[in-house]
Automatic annotation (TrEMBL):
Lineage, uppermost ranks: Bacteria, Pseudomonadati, Bacteroidota, Cytophagia, Cytophagales
InterPro entries: Hexapep, Transf_Hexapept/Carb_Anhydrase, Trimer_LpxA-like_sf
Gene3D superfamilies (alphabetical): Hexapeptide repeat proteins
Protein name according to UniProt: Carbonic anhydrase
PANTHER family given in the database record: DYNACTIN SUBUNIT P25, GAMMA CARBONIC ANHYDRASE-LIKE 1, MITOCHONDRIAL-RELATED
Transmembrane segments: none
Species whose genome carries this gene: Rufibacter radiotolerans
Domain of life from the UniProt record: Bacteria
Length: 197
């Protein structure tokens, strides 16, 4: 669902995919190859939201702000399921974990990883390549080259997803039985713990 608000119509590049059950409102600019999952709410009613190329905003995420604020997701940002970004700037190639909350005027430096369920309070400044976890948040270590490569590989899967959704996603009626010839899906990406072992 795409809504105009107060004269602002969202801008979505044709290569991006916004799921029909996501809601994008008002002053929102979405770049190339962006994936927005079902249940996401990207609400540019009081301020501007810029989502640069190759980002993904996964299922049930919320992006919003206080009046007059710009929210910026720089290129290749990965916003995990259920995360909330409120009035923050998220640096290039950052991963924000599932159900994390990033508050007003937070700046997350490039190539950082924000852990699942992490809470970043207003006005925090996270240096580039930081691993941030906990509630309240705490920087626990620096992101290694290996971690950046792992995160980038995961985001590249999401960079392909908009094109796949445009060609393969379609409404259907459910089957009532599992077909005998149902194909197996390929394990094309590993969790961090699997990759390390």
């Amino acid at each position: 669902m795409i809504y105009e608000f107060n004269g602002y119509i969202p801008v979505v590049h044709e290569s991006s995919f916004v799921h029909p059950q996501a809601v994008v409102t008002g002053n929102v600019i979405i770049g190339k190859n962006v994936y927005v999952g079902p249940g996401a709410a990207i609400r540019g009613d009081w301020g501007e939201i810029i989502i640069e190329d190759n980002c993904n905003v996964q299922e049930n995420c919320t992006i919003h702000m206080f009046p007059g604020t710009t929210v910026l997701l720089k290129e290749m940002v990965h916003i995990g399921h259920g995360a909330i970004i409120h009035g923050a700037t998220i640096g290039r190639n950052v991963m924000v974990g599932m159900n994390a909350v990033v508050m007003d005027r937070v700046e997350v430096g490039d190539e950082s990883i924000v852990g699942a369920l992490c809470f970043l309070k207003a006005d925090e400044k996270i240096p580039p390549r930081s691993v941030v976890v906990g509630n309240p948040s705490k920087i626990v270590k620096q992101v290694s080259d290996e971690m950046v490569a792992w995160k980038t590989d995961g985001t590249q899967i999401y960079m392909q997803l908009p094109a796949d959704c445009h060609t393969m996603l379609k409404p259907c009626e459910p089957l009532r039985e599992v077909p005998e010839n149902r194909k197996k899906q390929v394990a094309s990406y590993q969790t961090w713990n699997e990759r390390k072992s």
